[in-house]
Design a protein that fits this description.
The structure holds 2 protein chains of 2 kinds.
Chain A lengths: L2 E6 L6 H13 L4 E4 L13 H7 L3 E2 L3 H7 L12 H16 L3 H8 L5 E5 L2 E5 L18 H10 L4 E4 L6 E4 L5 E4 L14 E8 L5 E8 L3 H10 L4 H9 L11 H6 L3
Helix pairs in contact in A: 3-5, 7-8
Chain B lengths: L8 E2 L6 E5 L28 H14 L3 E5 L9 H8 L5 E5 L6 H13 L4 E6 L5 H8 L3 H14 L5 E5 L7 H14 L6 E5 L5 H7 L26 E5 L2 E3 L11 E3 L9 E2 L3 H9 L16
Helix pairs in contact in B: 1-2
Classes of the chains: A alpha/beta, B alpha/beta.
Chain lengths: 262, 300
């Protein structure tokens, strides 16, 4: 028997990508869909995300953004350390907070920090950044394998699944264990493509997990038009239409930064 | 009688960052704001050999270290430096803090090849303290601006994107102008996507003579630690390997109580925050880590 889960993070208000992802994931046989947090940020109309999640029974982990909006904090707690990164993060945070309804804020406030599953004998731990810190950046090029081994042991998980950084990757660990960053739906991956990414995890009877990263096309032109209409920064809109990040760049390590355009 | 107040202690949550005082206190420059008084004749702390570094790298695996940092003095005065960085990239990401003035082209060619073969990033952090020779050289020494910029150009030519670090020696009111001019200067030298990190100055070493050091009131108290995000403090997630053993952090190299043991495991114990430099770390946070570490975390 094979069990397939679909997972994504960082919707960032991109309800059009979310709609497309749900259709695609069901078509590919996903029995359950999980969101690993950060429902808001970046895009337009935050409240349009929530009915899609609830109507499709999508369970969510709380990201740093959700904690901030849910508790009406002053900033997104994204973990940026550069003034320009924080400047743009604050624009999107103020917009999202102002346009998220009170019931939806309440929903975000009550999301769990982690979800644990047991599938085909594998202990699966879903979190946002890392199991120890909601807003920890785990980049492929700055996360040692023995650090991930330690996390998997400390948190008693065979499959550790996170998001937060915005770029998908995976690392195989000892004893058939694995770490997987599922990517985000809200914006492209700084690779010059307008696609966004989600992940399918296929579990089989042999206690193996196959990881499938899925690029997703959606109506990005309509998304860009709605962002323009909402007077969101041109820098954000350019990212949607070109696939290159032009903000939040200083948080990138050398390898990930070098692959981008800016 | 003045009663001594016991400073608050900080436990290490996890050894995320392992630092190496790889060039000891030896440097080819004598900067006025150096927080450990490194200069061309300071042999107070010695070089680490490839074998010594390798032993610590092996020790670090069981502790789950996430990233490795190399500092001095000037790391590239150490004849083993290229081999050390290449070996480190077998274990995890490596960052080297350099003044950029002593690079040789074959070293950078070799390191570029090693980085491309590794899954991990090799970060260069180059210290420059002004966007012109007129502003930089009075702090770092005559001719150092041109020499450092030649180093940056070599790094860029070999495909690296160095993080330029500058200690804030200008008034806050000039911050935006200084940063804009810095970025423009780097672009004019062929570094089209410059990365810049501004650091606070630490009133230790040579800088203590320049700025008269810390006042007694500039200390962390137990009250200040209430509801404070302790992950901002380097000693909460880092240790430093020196030729004399394991110390608490790269800033307090010369502090008498900085040594915590002979092995990494020995050094996993609390440390009292009794120094003026601890106060700077408290105020500014994440001054030693790369921006990609994003150390302003919330707990799960």
């Amino acid at each position: 028997m094979k069990t397939t889960l679909a997972l994504f993070g960082g919707i960032y208000n991109n309800y059009l990508a979310l709609e497309a992802a749900i259709v695609d994931e069901k078509k590919r046989g996903a029995s359950d869909i999980y969101c690993l947090g950060d429902l808001g940020a970046f895009g337009p109309h935050p409240d349009r995300v929530f009915p899609l999640l609830q109507e499709n029974n999508i369970q969510c982990v709380q990201g740093n953004y959700d904690d901030s909006i849910g508790n009406e904090l002053e900033n997104c707690q994204c973990g940026y350390t550069d003034p320009r990164d924080n400047y743009f993060a604050q624009i999107s945070y103020d917009y999202t907070l102002a346009n998220t309804s009170v019931p939806n804020r309440h929903y975000l406030k009550n999301l769990p920090k982690e979800i644990r599953l047991e599938i085909q004998g594998k202990r699966v731990l879903l979190c946002h950044g890392s199991p120890r810190k909601t807003n920890e950046f785990l980049w492929e090029s700055t996360t040692s394998t023995h650090f991930l081994e330690r996390l998997a042991s400390d948190f008693e998980a065979d499959v550790l699944v996170g998001t937060h950084s915005g770029i998908h990757w995976q690392r195989s660990l000892s004893g058939g264990r694995a770490f997987i960053n599922v990517g985000v739906l809200g914006r492209p991956e700084n690779d010059g493509r307008t696609d966004v990414w989600y992940t399918l995890l296929h579990f089989n009877d042999a206690q193996e997990v196959e990881v499938e990263f899925v690029p997703l096309r959606y109506d990005h032109q309509r998304m860009a038009a709605e962002m323009t209409e909402q007077q969101l920064p041109q820098e954000f809109i350019d990212t949607i239409t070109t696939g290159w990040w032009s903000t939040c760049l200083e948080i990138l390590p050398a390898k990930e930064r070098a692959r981008g355009k800016f | 009688m003045i009663q001594q107040v016991k400073p608050p202690e900080i436990a290490i949550s996890h050894l995320d960052h392992l630092w190496f005082q790889v060039a000891g206190t030896l440097c080819n420059l004598s900067c006025h704001h150096c927080f450990i008084s490194c200069h061309p004749k300071n042999h107070n702390f010695g070089f680490l050999t490839l074998e010594q570094v390798e032993q610590r790298l092996l020790e670090s695996v069981a502790l789950g270290v996430k990233e490795y940092y190399f500092t001095g003095g000037e790391p590239f005065l150490n004849p083993d430096m290229v081999s050390i960085l290449k070996r480190t990239l077998d274990f995890g990401p490596a960052t080297v803090l350099t003044n950029g003035t002593v690079f040789k082209e074959p070293w950078l060619e070799s390191l570029r090849e090693a980085e491309q073969q590794s899954v991990y990033s090799l970060e260069f952090r180059v210290s420059i303290d002004g966007f012109t020779a007129e502003t930089n050289d009075p702090i770092r020494g005559e001719g150092t601006f041109d020499r450092a910029m030649r180093g940056v150009s070599k790094l860029v030519k070999h495909g690296f994107m160095p993080i330029i670090t500058a200690a804030r020696t200008w008034p806050d009111s000039e911050e935006q102008t200084v940063i804009s001019n810095f970025l423009a200067m780097l672009r004019s030298h062929g570094y089209e996507r410059p990365r810049l990190k501004i650091l606070p100055t630490l009133k230790l070493g040579e800088e203590e003579n320049r700025s008269c050091g810390y006042r007694d009131s500039e200390r962390i108290t137990s009250e200040m630690m209430e509801e404070f995000d302790t992950s901002q403090l380097i000693c909460e997630h880092s240790r430093l390997v020196t030729d004399r053993g394991i110390q608490v952090c790269p800033i307090l190299l010369e502090a008498e109580d900085a040594k915590l043991g002979e092995t990494l495991q020995d050094s996993i114990r609390p440390y009292p925050l009794s120094h003026g430099a601890c106060f700077t770390c408290y105020q500014y946070g994440s001054i030693c880590s790369n921006p990609s570490s994003g150390f302003s975390a919330i707990e799960s």
